[in-house]
Write a structure and sequence with these properties.
Distance between the termini: 32 Å
Radius of gyration: 22 Å
Order of helices and strands: HHEHEHEHEEHEHEHHEHEHEHEEHH
Mean pLDDT: 92
Number of helices: 14
Bound molecules: beta-D-galactopyranose
Strand content: 5-15%
Number of strands: 12
Low-confidence stretches: 1-29
Helix content: 40-55%
Length: 375
């Protein structure tokens, strides 16, 4: 049994009882614990999206390879379920928590309980906000993701070349904008990076947001849901493109949303004139769409590396060391700047699929052709 459970239970009677069974006392450190005695609680938001399934699997694999036990739970995108699962991880004696939160501010009670039990908390990809009890953050440079998405839109429209030079197209082009879930801290970084990049083109009239909807709260999609994006795209087509005009480009911050947007466009008859649609996460179904020339691009964030960093940080905490950060300035969660390890990103157009995704072993050529990962 993990010794941290003693601190977590908080009842003197229970503590005494358990201490008698295990011979360990509350508040003792990790010295002497073998990896096999230690458990890492891993809380993931949802299994409806491929990326979080891959994240969960990779984190589990990396930690188990180091000999640790893993308590992996998915919360079905339901905030009370995630709170309950994290509570249970604490009472079951987790020694470290790795959490990809559904909503950035919803877990403060759990985080306080973790802090009281001296359980370090690693925020995974999405920063947990408004709590002092977040010890480390592993993610990507989320502002740069937004810049890369907007740049991919400009390249797809021919306004810019891949090496950053001015493209041959002149426009004007009709575009529409989408953002992720407003309660995910990443959403504002993605949208901020994208809008800073698109603004000069919008100001110059080269890009026109025909619906006029350009504020984050007008374009955000709750819980990043594909159906929500499809519905909004359908509404946009009805309200703003019923005069024979065409959509030329769509800024989409996530492949799941992109697929909803593409479905709406296909249902409305778009085929060879499919707008340039961006994405994120290199989900296999979208990689196939990129390969088939339907979706324009995605942003590849290597979840194997993210999982590896989370495992390295967890191990540092378990060895009473401070995990190595490579950014100690950017991610202020409203209470403190959380030391972070940020990984690089890569834009993937169709000709990048082979060198970036297949040659690195992320997907096989067969998986790309099928649009489905093997496991
Ligand atoms: C974000 C994450 C994106 C995407 C999105 C929807 O927090 O950074 O990569 O996965 O959630 O799941």
């Amino acid at each position: 049994m993990s010794r941290r459970i003693l601190a977590a239970l908080g009842s003197a009677v229970l503590v005494l009882g358990l201490a008698a069974c295990s011979g360990e006392g509350a508040g003792s450190g990790n010295d002497g614990d073998k990896p096999g005695d230690l458990t890492i609680g891993v809380s993931m938001p949802t299994q409806t999206s491929e990326r979080w399934i891959a994240d969960g699997n990779f984190v589990k694999e990396k930690l188990e390879a180091k000999g640790y036990k893993v308590d992996l739970q998915y919360a079905g995108d339901d905030i009370p379920t995630q709170s309950q699962q994290v509570d249970q991880m604490i009472t079951r004696g987790a020694d470290v928590l790795i959490i990809a939160a559904i909503a950035g501010t919803a877990l403060s009670g759990q985080l306080q309980a973790a802090a009281d039990a001296k359980i370090p908390v690693i925020s995974y990809d999405r920063l947990i906000r408004d709590s002092p009890n977040v010890d480390f953050y592993v993610s990507f440079d989320n502002y740069k993701v937004g810049v890369a998405q907007a740049t991919a839109l400009l390249v797809g429209l021919g306004l810019q070349t891949k090496d950053g030079a001015k493209g041959e197209a002149t426009g004007p082009f009709n575009i529409e904008l989408f953002a992720g879930s407003l309660d995910d801290n990443n959403t504002q970084y993605f949208f901020g990076g994208a809008m800073d990049t698109l603004k000069p083109f919008i100001d110059a009239g080269t890009l026109k947001v025909k619906s006029g909807q350009n504020k984050i709260d007008q374009v955000a999609i709750l819980r990043w849901q594909q159906e929500g994006a499809q519905k909004r795209m359908e509404d946009l087509l009805t309200s703003s493109y019923n005069d024979g005009s065409k959509v030329d480009g769509v800024l989409s911050p996530y492949d799941g949303l992109s697929r909803g947007i593409i479905t709406a466009l296909q249902n409305a008859g778009y085929r060879d004139d499919m707008p340039v649609v961006t994405g994120q996460d290199a989900e296999i179904a979208s990689v196939k769409l990129i390969n088939d020339g339907v979706q324009g691009s995605t942003i590849f964030k290597d979840t194997r590396l993210l999982a590896e960093q989370a495992a390295i940080a967890a191990e540092s905490f378990l060895q009473d060391k401070t995990p190595q950060a490579n950014d100690t300035e950017t991610y202020d969660n409203g209470v403190k700047v959380v030391p972070s390890y940020l990984l690089p990103i890569q834009t993937v157009f169709s000709d990048d699929i082979k060198p970036v995704l297949i040659d690195s072993g992320y997907f096989t050529a067969e998986e790309v052709a099928a649009g489905q990962a093997k496991d």
